[in-house]
Amino acid sequence: PQPQVDAILKAVERYKVRWMLGVPTLYRMILENDRLEQYDLSSLKYCFCGGDVLPAEVFRRWREHTGEPIYQVYGSTEAGHVTYSRLDREPDANTVGMPLKSRTCLIVDPETLEPVEKGASGELLVTSKENLKYYWKKPEETARSYVKVQGETYYRMGDYLREREDGQLQFVERTADIIKYKAYRISASEVEAILQDHPTVVGACVVGVPDDRVGERIKAIVVLKEDARGVGGAELVKWCREHLASYKIPHYIEFRDMLPKSKVGKLLRREIRDEERRKQDG
């Protein structure tokens, strides 16, 4: 079911809500609500986001409209809450806070499991007393998701992050959402963010399409605003060329009326990726 955006905005205004938690899609839907200017959101002080990476464009627009930033939170079912955000420190887009003192975090090369240099991106590993220890009756999945490093068992978060000089973790990409084109590793969410910056685009999903010659080609599934007219793939490719390196330009663009989302509004990129692989196999 779609969130009832007007009902949310009415509740914020009526009850003078100070704290708010939502997924990126909800914040985008609020910003694109035609009646947004009718509501008084001045009570909002602390806005948090989880479930997926928050596009920098949504972070910027929210800040411009409310005067407040959005603090990102980060974790998983297996590792629980991993980070916290200091409310006395200004967040940047894509920062997800600092590791909780009860969590030990390592950023490693996903192939060798060797720690990377500070500031470099790598896969995040997490261990703590609260970690889920294994998957019930799923030994193969447990073996894929847990690794021994320096005598400790760590959970593989499946995400690329980097540690900034100030100790904050910065989200880079989910490992499954890195597109491998020739010798390049391309962030699907980076390309999506550029497409979603186009004034006629309301949603985008970017996946890798298997290709024997180059590994994967880049395909973008795009949803346009209802009042968009005359916008085609060529215009969006041109837009991407103006904002991205040449090897990050989508090779294919497909238009749809909607994208698959979870019940909480999170983009289900895996469904699109699996669909494209079935097409290849067929």
Quick structural gist:
It is built from seven helices and 17 strands. The protein is α+β, with helices and mostly antiparallel strands and 282 residues long.
- How much helix, percentage-wise, in residues? 25-40%
Low-confidence runs: none
Number of domains: 3
CATH homolog superfamily of the largest domain: ANL, C-terminal domain
Description:
- This protein is an alpha+beta fold and 282 residues long.
- It folds into 3 domains: 5-72, Rossmann fold, CATH 3.40.50.980; 98-174, Roll (Luciferase, domain 3), CATH 2.30.38; 182-281, GMP Synthetase, Chain A, domain 3.
- Helices cover 25% and strands 30% of the residues.
- It contains 7 helices and 17 strands.
- The strands form 6 sheets. Strands 8, 9, 10, 11 and 12 form a 5-stranded antiparallel β-sheet that branches. Strands 1-2-3 form a 3-stranded parallel β-sheet.
